[in-house]
Amino acid sequence: MEIIVDFPGGSRVDAHFGNFTVPTDQPPMASAPTPFAVFLSSIGTCAGIYVLGFCRQRNIPTDGIRIAQRIHSNPMTGMVEKIDLEIQVPTSFPDKYRDSLIRSAELCAVKKHLENPPQFEITTTKVELA
C-alpha cells in the first residue's frame, strides 16, 4: 500500500490512498483533525469494525452500541500511557456475548500493530516538479 502525503496550504497536511483523502491540520486555525487525533481515532474505529462484524454475524442490532475511547497521557512527557476502550451496550444486549464482544474488539489490527510496532525507515528522494 502506498500513501501519498501532500501540503495543500497553510498548516494542512493531507494523506491520499486509493480513492480517499484524509485531511489533517494544526491549531489554532485547524480545519481538520490533527494527524495524532486521526491516529488515535483509528484505534477506536478499528475496534468498532470488529464489534460491528461480530454483531452482524449474529444478527444483533447495533442500535445503542458505541465505544468510548479514553486516552491517558503522562503529564510529564505528554506521551500516551494507556488507552481504555469501553464498549457500551444497551440493556437489551445478550449477556452471553459480552466477553466475546470484547475478544472481537481485541482483534483490531491497529491495536496489534501498536503492540508489535513496525520498524521505520525515512529517506529523501529528488523528483522533477510537473
Task: Describe this protein with a few key phrases.
single chain; 130 residues; alpha+beta; GMP Synthetase, Chain A, domain 3; 3 helices; 29% helix; elongated
Strand content: 25-35%
The CATH topology of the domain at 34-115 turns out to be GMP Synthetase, Chain A, domain 3
Q: Give the overall average pLDDT.
A: 96
Share of helix among residues? Answer: 25-40%
Main sheet, how many strands, which sense, barrel?
A: 3 strands, antiparallel
Strand order of the largest sheet: 1-2-3
Unreliable parts: none
CATH class of the domain at 34-115 reads: Alpha Beta
Second rung of CATH, namely the architecture of the domain at 34-115:
2-Layer Sandwich
Distance between the termini: 24 Å
Q: What is the overall shape?
A: elongated
Any idea what the radius of gyration is? 19 Å
CATH level-four homologous superfamily name of the domain at 34-115? K homology (KH) domain
List the helices and strands and how they pair.
Layout: E1 4-9, E2 12-17, E3 20-24, H1 35-57, E4 66-73, E5 80-88, H2 98-105, H3 109-115
Antiparallel strand pairs: 1-2, 2-3, 4-5
Helix pairs in contact: 1-2
